[in-house]
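User: Predict the structure for this protein chain, please.
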Amino acid sequence: MKENAGFDRRHALKVLATGAVGVAASPLWVESLSALARQQAHTHAAQAAMIAQEWTPRILTAAQNELVATLTELIIPQTETPGAKAAGVNRFIDGVLHDASSVEREAFLRGLASIDERSQTLFKKAFIDATPEQQTALLTEISKRDGAGGDFFRAIKSMTIDGYYTTEIGLRHELGDSGQLFLPQFPGCEHPEHG
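Assistant: Here is the predicted structure, written as structure tokens:
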């Protein structure tokens, strides 16, 4: 499985490009959150350098943040390279939700709650308390759904990929960037004519 993990992550970038078709067919809130995540990706790279600093979610409760961290780690797990949790993707998602409209934010939070509800129905326990096999089975199930569950999965998957591959961990450790792609600061245009 480890041998394919790197390919799967790299393949995720290609999937993200083709996944835009799936997002476009999704409800407006999924499309909007995905677009906002892509827009904020460059600032996340600079903020990810501060990952060791103490942090408190602005939107997510402690339990929701733990659930988001668990879900993102299932989407991009730790292998021979760090996963989504180590990259602070949960922090990125909280930031996106902070800047999202209340409609988009509430739709995402309803989707997050539905994960726990479905886990309680299937396994009689919260999602984070389920076994890794149960968690994977549940995510696989909702990823194939149409409607709210599938929409939520498409939104969190898109934000996870954007959040992960714009961090130093995603770029340097996973993709092997030598520093050409990861910028701790985004300097902007320095041409005087663009003032």
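The CA atoms of residues 5 and 11 lie 10 Å apart.
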